[in-house]
Amino acid sequence: MSLPSLDSIETPAALVDEDRLETNLQRAAAYVREHGLRWRPHTKTHKVPELAARQLQAGASGVTVATPREAEVMGAVADDVLLAYSPVGASKLARLMALPGRVRLSVAVDSREVLAGLAEAARGAGRRVGVLVELDLGMRRVGVPTPEEAVVLAREAAGTQGLEYQGVMFYPGHIRMPMAEQGPALAEVSRRLGTFLETLGAAGLKPGIVSGGSTPTLWRSHEVVGMNEIRPGITPFFDRASAWMGACGWDEVAYSVLATVVSTAVPGQAVIDAGSKALAKEELPVGGYGALLERPDVVVHALSEEHGMLDLSRTSWRPRVGERVRVVPNHVCVSVNLQDELWAVRGGQVVGRWDVTGRGRGPSSSRN
């Protein structure tokens, strides 16, 4: 396939720095090896099977997904798929059961209703599906809140035909402060997890898999006692939030959105053609919706659907109409979900292209 020059790509366009991507993958792989952790990265960030294959080649034991569509796409390259989201509804269950037989499917569960539906679907498809009981260790979004409830679900999963109780999982998504300040919050997660593990062990239901982790807490994962698997998603790319929290340096961010300056009519401001439909509208405590990769002091201070407004008050740089810039969004996952494709670049040259095939609900969905 002939690749275009970077200058000829129409903006806005999502770019991935190939060298930084590879460095980030190898660094994550080295960390889990050093600390004896399994690495089952969450592919919701990139939604690209080729990148999942790269993670597996780097040492990941499997992949994590959030939707049946992601499971279908990643099942083409991965033999171990964890759906970290309780599937509710016959259509979703049917799609999961239709995954290739070689795929070892595991599912997060926090209710008997989901467990029953999953078991019925598994038996009907002649599959054996792994179950991870989801715990709430402070996120207060999903997950059973008490060890006793975890025991009930684990015991039922262990004794139900079509299911296999494999362990527990949690997501410490409430820990979003700078990495240096995470100690007390991680200690509390470790304490609460210990209570669950002790109770499950006493009931004869010691979990083989204890899955957790996130990108903000990635490099301190080894401090959570009892956890043996992590599922970071943003790690291959990183983003402005990751840099703010100290999970990466600014020179390690691999993802940016290429944009063109379309107006400088308002003094102290430049407008680019990447708005909320390219960057997403998620805020950070430091303000703004993104910053320029080469000029991090220039912040996207406001967004509308097709316009991004750059604040020039802290820089002497005055861009010209037609000039191109690269914007690091606050949250890469949402930005990627707005793209049709990702362009791999190295040294100002386009070296690859990936379709974001894990977006949406897949070919069977109907949209108006």
TrEMBL record:
Entry annotated with the keyword Secreted: no
D-serine dehydratase-like domain segment(s): 254-346
GO terms (BP aspect): D-serine catabolic process
Pfam families on file: Ala_racemase_N (PF01168), D-ser_dehydrat (PF14031)
InterPro entries for this protein: Ala_racemase_N, D-amino_acid_metab_enzyme, D-ser_dehydrat-like_dom, D-ser_dehydrat-like_sf, PLP-binding_barrel
Domain of life (superkingdom): Bacteria
GO MF, one annotated term: D-serine ammonia-lyase activity
Lyase found in the keyword field: yes
Keywords associated with the record: Lyase
Family: Belongs to the DSD1 family.
Protein name as it appears in the record: D-serine deaminase-like pyridoxal phosphate-dependent protein
Organism, scientific name: Archangium gephyra
